[in-house]
Specification:
Largest interface: A-B, 44 and 44 residues
Number of helices of chain A: 8
Order of helices and strands of chain A: HHEEEEEEEHHHEEHHEEH
Strand order of the largest sheet of chain A: 2-6-4-5
Radius of gyration of chain A: 18 Å
Helix content of chain A: 40-55%
Oligomer: homodimer
DNA sequence: CGAAACGTTGACGCACGTCAATGATAGTGG
DNA sequence: CCACTATCATTGACGTGCGTCAACGTTTCG
């Protein structure tokens, strides 16, 4: 789909940082000059295992990564999804013993950036350090919304909320829009993100489809009615902290 | 209960930082010398409202604070609890427009520390900056576990997990132990943390009581059987990143 | 002492889970 | 290019954990 050049991924990451943090020319050069090792992971492969000591953070260049935990019975819960331009475990800079695992949901290209390089970049350019700290905090906001989702919304709202989030994030990196995007993910993956079962995700998707709101088929989401989707999710994009030039959200906030 | 001196709260915060981050003498002096304004909040009072611009972070000196979000129907979901020694919104340093609200669950004393002071402390002492960044990341780990809780555990496990977490945290600040602690919180508060209804929390507490695991009465938790409580929660204290000299947890990890 | 807040309990309903069968899709090797 | 097969999607019947509603007891506090 995309070349997944290292430089391209670093550019996406830089854009992500600059959407929330002002960076000078020197800062930008520092980010784009980060050293990295390219690694490929097959679908379903674990990138980082629970408890593993890591010495580098993983920047997604291509594909789809999830962070997750599981119960002793093997019930999984996804904590976050990471798309190209996201660091999947930037927090590992501060907690190098992985407190949760990382899995490639599809064939994925990861740029491993050594902690040492990130640390020296932060030391040399305080603005870059602040931007990365802010990035960790924004992960936090996202997690909060997922908790809200799972704790206090019904299946339909949860699913709608997740799809809204993904639409805006893919829009931001130029790989989709509010009309639709590619989502090479099984219904079981969605279930693990939403605290539901695959069967119920399927039924909920059917309901949304029959209401003419969204269609998910063959790895592609078609959003037929963004307004309705955002409304049934009570979606407020503020937490994504993304610039939204042409945002039409439920509450009209953060636009 | 306690004098809630500003110095005492800063000492607790310093201990919290030093449990995870090495700080030199100069760093410690910087933390203890942070300027702050003492403020009191009555029970149920909102400390920070959604969307509010804040210029200081709130260190809990005494009482109990929750961060939360709510649906349009007014359904609340707590994202975290904060006890003395915790900053309730350290992340506001990086995102000053509050993306979630803060409420005092009981009468609470807050030390408001200006962002400017925190920023200059971080600039002057990089180790303090790193410690605060790490503190934000640890919030993240906690949030992940709450999401796991709400998404993939039944009511009994959720409640047990929360009580385990609180026991260790109160133990760490010297206001409780694995045998019990003071918890001046209504069942509705617990429900909002666990994604349940107050009625079901009540029933679940009854079940735990009748099994001889824990008793919660008149604002006090008595843990009769820590092993059993930790086991039914599948509690792994690793995510709290606390030193546990005498920890007896379910999986024997992080001890 | 009175009133409001909180805790407790029972009866009943529903959203979602479980189980199981069948159909569609995609990846693989011949 | 086509079987072959594993994975994924779909659907129905049925079970259950938790929600809802409503009443009543208990504690707390002014």
């Amino acid at each position: 789909m995309s070349p997944a050049e290292p430089a391209e991924a670093l550019r996406l990451f830089l854009a992500r940082l600059m959407a929330r943090s002002p960076l000078g020319a020197e800062d930008q050069k520092t980010v784009l000059g980060l050293p990295c090792t390219v690694r490929h992971f097959a679908a379903h492969r674990e990138i980082v295992q629970l408890g593993q000591q890591v010495e580098h953070a993983g920047l997604v260049a291509d594909g789809f990564v999830a962070r997750f935990g599981q119960t002793e019975e093997g019930q999984r819960q996804f904590f976050s999804f990471h798309i190209p331009g996201d660091f999947a475990d930037l927090y590992s800079l501060m907690v190098p013993t992985a407190p949760s695992a990382l899995q490639a949901l599809t064939a994925t290209t990861i740029l491993q950036v050594p902690h040492s390089a990130l640390r020296s970049a932060a030391a040399r350019c305080p603005a870059v350090g602040a931007a990365m700290w802010r990035d960790c905090v924004i992960d936090n906001l996202s997690l909060s919304q997922w908790l809200m989702n799972v704790g206090r919304r019904d299946a339909r709202s949860r699913l709608a909320h997740l799809l809204c989030e993904l639409a805006l994030r893919f829009d931001f990196i130029g790989r989709g829009s509010r009309q639709g995007f590619s989502l090479p993910m099984t219904q079981e993956h969605l279930a693990d993100a939403l605290g539901l079962t695959p069967v119920h995700v399927n039924r909920t998707l059917k309901a949304l489809r029959e209401d003419g709101v969204v269609t998910l088929a063959r790895g592609r989401v078609h959003i037929h009615d963004w307004e309705m989707l955002a409304a049934s999710a009570q979606f407020d994009p503020l937490y994504l902290q993304l610039p939204s030039p042409s945002c039409h959200c439920a509450k009209g906030r953060g636009c």
